[in-house]
Amino acid sequence: xxxxxxxxxxxxxxxxxxxxxxxEVNKRTGQYNIIGFIDNATRLQGLFVDGCPVLGDDKWxxxxxxxxxxxICIGNPEIRKSVxxxxxxxxxxxxxxxxxxxVHHCDTVKFGQGCIVCLxxxxxxxxxIGDFTIIDLNCTISHDxxxxxxxxxxPGVNVAGNVWIESCADIGAGTTIIQGRRIGESAIIxxxxxxxxxxxxxxxxxxxxxxxxxxxxxxxxx
Length: 222
Description:
By secondary structure, the chain is of the alpha/beta class. The protein has three helices and 25 strands. The chain is globular. 38% of the residues are buried.
């Protein structure tokens, strides 16, 4: 298998977890040559995070002279989209689909660019995953569901069949979404919620069953 040079954008908790997962993959296949982290935190510049160098901030990638692959390892959908928007000035940055280790998925699952699917997740049949969506550890997505761009599914989310999740939704850890429900754009679903009815856009919903508790400004618009 060809070894892929890659940088990880974001040296926070999720970035470190994805670094570990890629290292686990490399023990078996040597698939990824992890060059280092990109992070805008001044305090991290020039340091090593979990043994991996912080190469620089966004400018390092914007000014990179050749072809390079990158993974945006940032859990917040709004920030993830903002980072991607800034980096589009450099068309030589590639965003591969990263499917880690023991993920199981049917060949009828469609992935957009820059998706990351973490360990122990299962995606069944005829599922569409949009660009730059992150499916964290131990998630399940069932038949005919549609997950749009920049969505985050935190660990242990269970999505039943025929669910539609609009762009930039942020689905908290341990959430269950029953069949046929729709989650609106930029909705935030609190951890451990059970979604049994549609959730509108631009709101936060929590509870069993999940109900909207507040509205917020449009996130990730455009």
